[in-house]
Amino acid sequence: VSVDYQLIDFDVKGDATGSLVAIEGAGNIPFKIKRVYYIYGTTSAAVRGRHAHRRLQQLIFCPIGSCEFTLDDGRERQTIRLQHPNQGLYIKNSIWREFNNFSPDCVVMVLASECYDESDYIRNYDEFLREVRG
Ligand code: TYD
Question: Which of 43, 48, 119 for mutating ligand 1's site (highest number of atoms within 8 Å of CB)?
Answer without folding.
Answer: 48
